[in-house]
Amino acid sequence: MSNSYFRPDSKEEWADLLRQLGRQAKVQPQPFFYTRVQARLAAGQAQATAWLPAWARRPAYAALLGALVLAMSGDGPALRPASPAGHYGGYNLSPSAPR
Amino acid sequence: MAHCLPLCVTAELPSPLGASTPATDAALVAQLQQGSEAAFRTLVARFQDRVYSTAFSLLRSPEEAEDVAQEVFVEVYQTIDRFRGEAALSTWLYRLATSRALQHQRRLSARKRFAFFTSLLGFTTNQLPEPPDHAHPQALLEGAQQLQQLQQQIGRLPSQQQVAFTLRHEQELSYEEIAAVLGTTVAAVESLLFRARQTLRRHLQPSFRHV
């Protein structure tokens, strides 16, 4: 891909720098990598079996969330009085003598 | 595959470091899906360098790269049943490695920011240290400084550009392979690389003038 932004001399330097980058990227994990992966798998396995099975966790979260939503939204209007006492501008709940 | 350890031991596979071709990879996946420990060992041996070096290129930390590489192989083991072979095995592994590495990168940045703010508020002084600089002074004088600057600038690129640039110039993948890893088109990869190179050259330009 051409790029006129760069001068030819620095283009060479750029290419050289990219070659250095490529060479520098040849890194390897420490020896016995497979053993460590196995150990991690085994640790994950132990953790999973020690707690609830995976299938039981998500419905439990969903049920908890549902209960939370119900608790926060369901009973508000039921507990609130229809109109606060002494509230003017709407209904007057104070008993008045018929005229 | 049942998620049990130890894996079932099946017939010996060819040399663990044998060449990775679509046919050998497909055979490997088939054996892995049957629960073969030998297949898993072969898979790790065949791809560990590529997965590790990809993670290292994006994170510049041996510990983080090791962590990501382990995560990738654990995920492969746990989800190999869902691998249908639409993409090459190496593509899938590169995809996992890059996405996991970027996740780690974001987590590290968030932790650094949090540590910085808590230190400002005086709650703690346990700031995360900057990655150690192992460069020898002589090497720095001989031009490795530019390489270090380049690596720093790569780390500041937007994540898609960073992945594309790393896969191209450090893992030496073709444009088609990068497009497969990123789930995009070759033209989009070209555009990502063009923008990445422009940004990097712009930021490195002053130091080039003084070489």
Describe the structure.
The complex is a heterodimer of chains A (99) and B (211). Chain A is mainly α and 99 residues long. Chain A has helices spanning 8-24, 33-50, 54-73, 76-79. Chain A has a domain at 34-63. The termini of chain A are far apart. Chain B folds into two domains: 1-132, Rna Polymerase Sigma Factor, Chain: A, CATH 1.10.1740; 133-211, Arc Repressor Mutant, subunit A (Orthogonal Bundle). Residues 1-6 and 8-17 of chain B have low confidence and may be disordered. The chains are: A mainly alpha (99), B mainly alpha (211). The A-B interface holds A 1, 3, 5-6, 10, 13-14, 17-18, 20-22, 24-30, 33-34, 36-38, 40-42, 44-45 and B 3-5, 41, 44-45, 48-49, 52-53, 56-57, 62, 65-66, 69-70, 73-74, 77, 144, 146-147, 150-151, 169-172, 190, 193-194, 197-198, 201-202, 204-205, 208-209, 211.
What would the principal axes of the Cα set say about the shape of chain A? elongated
Biggest sheet layout of chain A? none
Low-confidence stretches of chain B: 1-6, 8-17
Overall CATH architecture of the largest domain in chain B: Orthogonal Bundle
Class from secondary-structure proportions of chain B:
mainly alpha
As a whole number of angstroms, the C-alpha radius of gyration of chain B is: 20 Å
Instruction: Work out the helix count of chain B.
Output: 8
- Oligomer classification: heterodimer
Strand/helix succession of chain A: HHHH
Number of helical regions of chain A: 4
Helix-strand pattern of chain B: HHHHHHHH
Topology-level CATH name of the largest domain in chain B:
Rna Polymerase Sigma Factor, Chain: A
Distance between the termini of chain B: 57 Å
DSSP strand content of chain B: under 5%
Share of helix among residues of chain A? 55-70%
Q: What's the average pLDDT of chain A?
A: 71
Helix content of chain B: over 70%
Number of strands of chain A: 0
Low-confidence stretches of chain A: 1-8
